[in-house]
Amino acid sequence: MPMLEVKHLSKSFGDGNQKLDILRNINLCVEQGDFVCISGQSGSGKSTLLHLLGLLDSPDSGVILINGEPVSSGSAAAPQLRNKLIGFVFQFHYLMDDLTTLENVALPMIVAGSGKRESLERARGLLKELDMENRAGHYPNQLSGGEQQRAALGRAMINQPALILADEPTGNLDPGHCREVLDLFARFNQRFGCTFILATHDLLVATTSKIHYKLENGALNRQH
Amino acid sequence: MDALLPFLTTTSFRLKNNRKLRFDYVVMILGLVISVTVVSTAINLFEGYQRSLTEIMLDSSSHILAFSDNEQYLTPVQLKPVLQTLENRPELKSARPVYSNAVMIKKGGKVRSGLVRAYSDSGFGTYWFEKYLQRGTQKLAGDDIIIGEKMARDMNARVGDLLTLIYADTKNVTPLGMIPHQADYRINAIIKTGYYEMDKSLIIMPEATAFRFYKTKPQYSHLEINLKDAASKPTLKTTQNLQHLLGNGIILQNWVDLNGNLFSLITMEKWLIFLVFSFLIMIASINCISTVSTSIFDRKKEIAILRTVGTPDHQIKTIVYLRILLVCSASIIVGLMAGLLTSWLITRQSLYQLKGDVYFIDRITMKISAFNYLIVFVTAFSAVSICTYLPLKHIKRLQIIDILRGN
Description:
Chain A is of the alpha/beta class. Chain A has seven helices and ten strands. In chain A, the strands form two sheets. Chain A has a six-stranded mixed beta sheet, with helices on both faces. A four-stranded antiparallel beta sheet of chain A has the order 2-1-4-5, with helices on one face. The radius of gyration of chain A is 17 Å and the shape is globular. The radius of gyration of chain B is 32 Å and the shape is elongated. In chain B, helix 2 runs antiparallel to helix 8 (about 255-300), helix 2 (about 25-60) runs antiparallel to helix 12 (about 370-390) and helix 9 crosses helix 14. In chain B, strand 6 (about 160-175) and strand 7 form a beta hairpin. The two termini of chain B are about 30 Å apart. By secondary structure, chain B is of the alpha+beta class. The chains are: A alpha/beta, B alpha+beta. Chains A and B meet through helix 2 and helix 3 of A and helix 1, helix 9 and helix 14 of B.
């Protein structure tokens, strides 16, 4: 059974003459542990697709199945799925300004109901993995772009989710930091076996993955 | 949620160098602090006024007055069995026959009206004015008198000075008209009760001196009875019991009947003032609506992050709600403390004091009542709770996607 399956997914914005079909009849099948890249130009619908997969938005039609179970953003179970099964990494790190790096990483675990001490302990371990142990007490505005993105990955990983959705995670980084973050993704993919779906407009980034889809005119086509 | 709420609450109040308090937050906090200060000050002062007036009135006036049923003076013969009956009653503190009459007082060029009260030795218990003695001694003999502090000030009289008392003797009418009777008396002591009317007009003299001055046989205007517990319920009960014991020849009137309306009016006025000033709290609370709305707008990124990591909307609402309520509760408590300080400062100042002829007492006092403080806190907290809750619906309407794309 595929870990993630998307059937006939469509999404449009606006109405009447202004209606814009962003995604048309998308079908996708992702196995546990896959590292999938979705490339496409800006505005092609990559982020929209990731938002739908991450249950942050609802499609006009089609279904999303996780481990064979249909899921939707409006369901009562959606928050719990977003917390335990899915991890997000965005182009703009979206770390909470009032929390330290350590606390930001621990946040989803605390949301899940774990104790503060236990959550911070695991977050410390993750920061060690991310080579950011010495930045645990710093606030997001005291971190570099690469560090912020690494902290965001740590936050996404804390609950050991089955699926990581990364929306242009390297879009804001210089080539050095870009390589660093991608290496980290690959390492986490191999080490923890979690599935990665990464959206990027950068073809160079996309071609490094084993599975590459291209999103063009609302349709998703496998490249390799 | 168990750990999330304290976690986010403590982190949100953490002091950071770059953190600045937003202007609308400052306005909300100041509004609450000031309005609660005003309300609690008003309540403290009104409570002080009410308690002081009650205390002074009950201390310096009798709790129950006994009159003859035929509107005549009470005679010693009539009073003897009454006093014997009363002496055995454990709920009574004192009972004393009093002769009371109007008088004019003269000293130098100044003339004032006054009221003579002569207490009989035949009663029992202590004299009420002992505790209010300001200067001199209470022991009266011969032509000694005790006067009120306000009268002493008005007449520029001191202990040892002579006052001329003048009485219009209606029995001594001559072809030339009524001849006033006058005599000089030495001030033996000055008392200050704080009850304006009493301090302004009271003259206490020995009964024998009074009877001689007014040229009357021993007789008494009324009997003053004081109770150990002068609260309204025991007073009413004791009056009923005593009336039953003393029979129909004596008519009893208690302070509840005589001044009950005044105390009810003061209580009503206190709560009316509280109600009117509570509108200030309402207005301050309305600030919370705009502050919470702005706060939700400003913190939409955080809300989006919390939703993205799986926090349900109701938990986000609770977090925002409790954060604001915590700030508001602290503001209310600060307001209550500031009210305490303001009331204390008002009682200490000398720029403005009450007019005794209007308010019965001429000094401003305060009284802290836990019940009043609880009422102010509950009112402010309820108003703030409602006004904070109303804008929380905006959280549900926030679209995560719009926020995430907004960057």
